[in-house]
């Protein structure tokens, strides 16, 4: 299309040049053949010769003039449509050029201007930012490392309008306000340029599925390593506890000695001891890697069996669910059983799976619910120790109150059962997320759309011109229906 537009533009320029040069030639010869005007006259002056009469004019001279006019009209009739046919190509070229320029400017802002890369990582892959935790009265507690979510899946979670809102006004007291509307340094156009860059770095469905699956496996591994009675798990726990104890002693000692920890002064003998403890742990993990892998596969297979038993029970209650077109009804009938205590054998295991999804650590928590709904989760408040130059040497929290509320509302104590009458409506809300100004559930107020959606997303009002004839963008789901169902069951049992 761009090549066609370029060819048509060239033809138009050639024709314009021919007409222009022809006009100059006509003017030149007309001036050369004309005589000076001597003044107004009623009859032909003596110094002027008469022109040709009608009999002489209405011969080949008139035919030549008419023929020339016809040729010019033909050229005009052909070239104008050709020019108009190239208009879509010119529009598309403008859109492509706008996309390229805005994306490059947005990348410059991301990397150098606002330096978003410092928190959100290279190409929006996720990172962390150091921030202070204080009490309600403003007293300092600790300097912590806050998980900054990945932005390479951002448009699967939020519309571009919602992204602009967050860029303008910040989020959660950690993400600052960057737009002029919220008192920040960036203009509206610069915010749109950042959105263009974010649009360019979104990852595909296969990458998303891989990240989520890796996060699930990590969560299952952590659970089995902490709770399993198998010999390999006991050995891993013993070595890990010894490593943590060594790391704590080393870090405390190195802080006293150097004023900072071993990550910045690794050549001290006590830091070497820390490294040796880590090497022992790695060797033990390598020794038992096969057993751990088999245990993870077995655990996930048991979860699948519980889910399948719920589907079987739902079908036994209503055989019509197996009819063509009833797949969604069958899914939600099984989910209602999985969400109701005592209805399905092995429900506790399924709810543990839901919690692992709720707290998925992949991509700095981009796929998790705990990032917003659980206080302290975003900065590892229950870690074995929090060692900072200024702060506490103890965990900030003894344990998380999962779903207890923080940036997002409290999900505990049956609040989700009161908000959503059915597990189906609950799952639908998590799939779609909150829409700016729209209510949800029984009494969910319309807000600013900061509850993300985890299902597939379509943005029908993107920023700036779109490329081609499409006026919308589509993005893959972050979680499958099966994964969303497990989260729903977990939340409805908090």
Query: Mind summarizing the main beta sheet?
Result: 2 strands, antiparallel
CA radius of gyration is 36 Å
The H-level CATH homologous superfamily of the domain at 97-200, spelled out, is Cytochrome c-like domain
Percent in strands:
under 5%
What's the CATH class of the domain at 97-200, please?
Mainly Alpha
- The percentage helix is 55-70%
Ranges with pLDDT <50 over ≥5 residues? 1-5
Shape: elongated
Strand order, biggest sheet?
A: 1-2
Measured distance between first and last alpha carbons: 57 Å
Overall mean pLDDT stands at 84
Structural class category: mainly alpha
Individual helix count? 19
Question: What's the total count of β strands?
Answer: 4
CATH domain fold name of the domain at 97-200: Cytochrome Bc1 Complex, Chain D, domain 2
CATH architecture term of the domain at 97-200: Orthogonal Bundle
Order of helices and strands: HHHHHEEHHHHHHHHHHHHHEEH
At a glance:
The protein is mainly alpha-helical and 494 residues long. The chain is built from 19 helices and four strands.
What does this structure look like?
By secondary structure, this protein is mainly α. Among the domains are: 97-200, Cytochrome Bc1 Complex, Chain D, domain 2; 206-287, no CATH class. The chain contains 19 helices and 4 strands. The protein has helices spanning 2-33, 54-57, 60-85, 87-113, 117-120, 154-157, 160-169, 188-200, 205-227, 231-258, 269-287, 289-317, 327-339, 347-358, 362-365, 370-373, 415-419, 423-432, 481-491, and strands at residues 127-134, 140-148, 457-459, 473-475. The strands form 2 sheets. Strands 1-2 form a two-stranded antiparallel sheet. A hairpin with a 5-residue loop joins strand 1 (127-134) and strand 2 (140-148). Helix 4 packs across helix 8 (188-200) and helix 13 (327-339) packs parallel to helix 19. The chain starts with a helix and ends with a helix. Mean pLDDT is 84; it is low at 1-5.
């Amino acid at each position: 299309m761009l090549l066609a537009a370029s060819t048509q533009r060239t033809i138009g320029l050639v024709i314009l040049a021919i007409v222009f040069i022809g006009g100059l030639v006509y003017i030149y010869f007309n001036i050369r053949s004309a005589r000076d005007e001597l003044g107004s006259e009623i009859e032909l002056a003596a110094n002027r010769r008469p022109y040709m009469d009608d009999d002489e004019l209405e011969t080949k001279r008139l035919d030549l003039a008419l023929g020339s006019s016809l040729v010019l009209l033909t050229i005009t009739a052909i070239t104008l449509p050709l020019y108009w046919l190239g208009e879509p190509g010119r529009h598309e070229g403008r859109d492509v050029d706008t996309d390229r320029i805005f994306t490059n400017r947005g990348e410059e802002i991301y990397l150098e201007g606002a330096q978003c890369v410092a928190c959100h990582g290279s190409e929006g892959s996720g990172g962390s930012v150091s921030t202070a935790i204080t009490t309600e009265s403003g007293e300092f507690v600790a300097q912590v490392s806050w998980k900054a979510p990945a932005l390479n899946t951002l448009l699967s979670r939020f519309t571009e309008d919602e992204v602009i809102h967050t860029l303008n006004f910040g989020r959660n007291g950690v993400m600052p306000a960057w737009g002029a509307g919220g008192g920040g340094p960036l203009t509206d156009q610069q915010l749109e340029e950042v959105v263009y860059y974010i649009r360019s770095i979104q990852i595909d469905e296969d990458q998303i599925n891989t990240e989520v699956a890796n996060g699930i496996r990590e969560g299952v591994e952590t659970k089995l390593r902490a709770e399993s009675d198998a010999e390999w798990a006991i050995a891993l726990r013993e070595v890990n506890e010894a490593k943590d104890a060594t790391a704590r002693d080393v870090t405390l000692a190195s802080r006293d000695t150097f004023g900072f920890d071993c990550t910045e002064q690794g050549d001290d003998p006590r830091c070497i001891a820390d490294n040796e403890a880590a090497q022992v742990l790695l060797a033990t993990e390598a020794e038992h890697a096969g057993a751990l892998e088999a245990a993870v596969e077995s655990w996930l297979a048991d979860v699948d069996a519980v889910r399948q038993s719920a589907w079987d029970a739902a079908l036994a209650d209503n055989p019509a669910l197996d009819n063509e077109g009833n797949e969604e009804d069958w899914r939600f009938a099984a989910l209602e059983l999985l969400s109701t205590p005592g209805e399905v054998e092995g429900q506790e295991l399924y709810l543990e799976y839901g919690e692992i999804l709720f707290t998925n650590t992949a991509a700095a928590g981009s796929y998790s619910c705990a990032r917003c709904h659980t206080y302290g989760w975003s900065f590892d408040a229950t870690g074995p120790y929090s060692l900072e130059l200024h702060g506490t040497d103890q965990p900030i929290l003894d344990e998380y109150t999962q779903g207890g509320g923080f940036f997002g509302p409290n999900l505990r104590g049956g609040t989700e059962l009161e908000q959503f009458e059915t597990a189906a409506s609950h799952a639908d809300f998590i799939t779609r997320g909150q829409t700016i100004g729209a209510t949800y559930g029984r009494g969910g107020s319309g807000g600013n759309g900061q509850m993300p959606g985890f299902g597939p997303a379509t943005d029908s009002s993107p920023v700036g011109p779109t490329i081609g004839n499409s006026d919308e963008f589509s993005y893959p789901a972050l979680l499958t229906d099966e994964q969303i169902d497990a989260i729903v069951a977990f939340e409805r049992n908090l």
